[in-house]
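Deliverable D4.2, example record:
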Amino acid sequence: MHRARANSGFTLIEVLLALGLTAALLGLLSSAVFVVASDWNRDSNVLDRNLDDSLAVLQLDRALHGAFPHSWMDEEELIRRVYFRGEDETLSWVSTVSPQRTPGLTAWQLFNDPELGVVLKLAPAFSDNPDARLEQAEASLLLPGYQASFQYLYTELDESRQWTGEWYGDENLALPLAVYVLFEPIAGEGEPMEVVARIRNRQHRSIQPAAPQQGFPL
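Output generated by the structure prediction step:
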């Protein structure tokens, strides 16, 4: 009877061992949960950023497809000019597309900030030159961590099509055939993105393009 009663419970060493094993298992489980949660949050942040970047590029693509040969009167020379200023790292144009879905035309301006990324300015386009309103408009960061470069498609005198790094609507009185935009990550993090937008409404109905010039023929 005395021997059976002594073997019926756990010893102190067995209890301590059981508590130690339980604590170790809980520690391993909590570490695994923490790692999984951290990976999930990191992947979610990357996914959110990629989604935001994709939406921004899609919106820009629509705005370029909707480019409009907006004309304004040059008071000094008393002639009408077409608003489009395309350079290697800066692009200003007027589009029928507005992010706020406001009626009328909207002037867009894209340029690079070496530290932040691709910056966008928006302003209403009335019957005048929208440069002054664009200069006063508040800049917003469109693609953080990226830089943009632009090229413009035009037709040579021999009817071949070429890409150039500059296109000025006030000189050519027309928009380019298409615009190519390359977005590259500044620090090497992320994938390059491209936009190739064909411009259908290239020429103003009441303004005839200027005579073809070498380097920028129509």
